[in-house]
Amino acid sequence: MEKGFRLLERIELGEPKNSYERVYSHQHLIESVHSHLADLLNTHSGNAMIDGDYGLPDFNDVLASNANLVRTVQQNIQETIAKFEPRLQDVSVHYREDHHNPLQLGFGISGVVTHNGGNVPLAINVFLGTDGQFNV
Questions:
Q1: pTM above 0.90, yes or no
Q2: pLDDT above 70 coverage of the chain, percent
Q3: Kind of pairing, strands 118-128 and 88-95?
Q4: What is the mean pLDDT of the chain?
Q5: N or C, fewer C-beta in 10 Å, the chain?
Q6: pLDDT band at 102 (very low <50, low <70, confident <90, very high)
Q7: Burial (0-12, 13-18, 19+ Cβ within 10 Å), 40
């Protein structure tokens, strides 16, 4: 089954309850997934009432206890997206080294969103800022 807008988006748009699968433009669907990824990646685990696992761990804690921060963050991003963003399939997360800013952690996220019987590729870059928030 193809997945469309999230529940709160359907409520905001005034869509009928059976409109889960109906998104007319793949651009709207991609924007919805992109917006949800921004929310998901900038929520710390334990801070969302819907699920204690929703979001990513506080990476300040990870930094103190783990020698391979990049791999840990990469794995956490991939696992979190797989668990909480079912519209994005075949998710791949890759570290993107920035030679001009070596202290900034950047990752490329790619995957496929199914829409109207076809697959729409999605690729975004995210950067972990010094404030611990992801710029999506």
A1: no
A2: 77
A3: unpaired
A4: 82
A5: N
A6: confident
A7: buried
